[in-house]
Fold:
Amino acid sequence: MMNYLLESNSYNPWRNLAIEKHLADNVRPGDLLLYLWQNENTVVIGRNQNALRECKVQLLEEEGGYLARRTTGGGAVYQDLGNLCFTFVASPERYDLARQMKVIAIACGKFGIETEFSGRNDIVTKDGYKFSGNAFSVTTKCKIQHGTLMIDVNKEKLGRYLTPSEEKMKAKGVKSVESRVCNLKELNPAVTVEEMKLALQEAFIQEYGELETLSMEHLDDIALQQTCELYASWDWRFGKSPECELVRRKRFSWGEAEIHMTLKNLYIQECKVFSDALDVELPKRLEQLLINQRFDMRNVESQDNELQEVIEWLKFAYF
Structure:
């Protein structure tokens, strides 16, 4: 049996999630690995979530942020450099959720912070404030537990990005659960990301014994890059969204347009347009233009001034 530690040298969520997959794909019998990583200005949604419902993506990306979709379930989380992500990657016989949670509890206890596992996937303080969300995956070769540790996260951005726009929408998929959250630094100012990394390593050694540190140089950069490109792609981040129904409405100089859309994998599968425009054929032309298009309107253009005005509005307001 071998225990390993790997710390990512990247703040890019797509690469960090690709590293996690690489570790899971290459775990050997008897291996247990602690992987520590950080993402910069990122919203991560669960495997079965609808991006439209969980996040103001346009605002996030305009401000230099990232949207990422993980392979595990659970809800949406905001992460920045005040957050520390951890992953336990284990061959099935080494996976032990109770012991893994104990590592987190011991690490937090070094700062005088008492914790408990709550519900299906949260770690909370003794006062019930959530500072860690967890998610899990299982294959025949590997079991994974990964989670967040809110140490000094920008809660203003957390609230701004994770509040979806007020649109009339019926969306399938898992919805995030609102929780009372706190930063560990609020409980003890001595807690920093670097100090927590050390505390986790010490707690791991206390629970499991000797820990061997791995270098990023041991990873296959070609395979990593391919997975990273997949996780960065529109089809993975948005196209995996479950079906939803959406209504968008706006008044233009020529009249009002109300657009009803059924989206599947965030492609417009069905479209019905209502309008009080004097041009009675405009709704039909707009429907024909929108049907089967990607919801971000990336490749949609029209020589019709009224239709192009609608398209430009949708491009700006798609999330």
Q: What stands out?
A: The two ends are 48 Å apart (CA to CA). DSSP finds eleven helices and 15 strands in the chain.
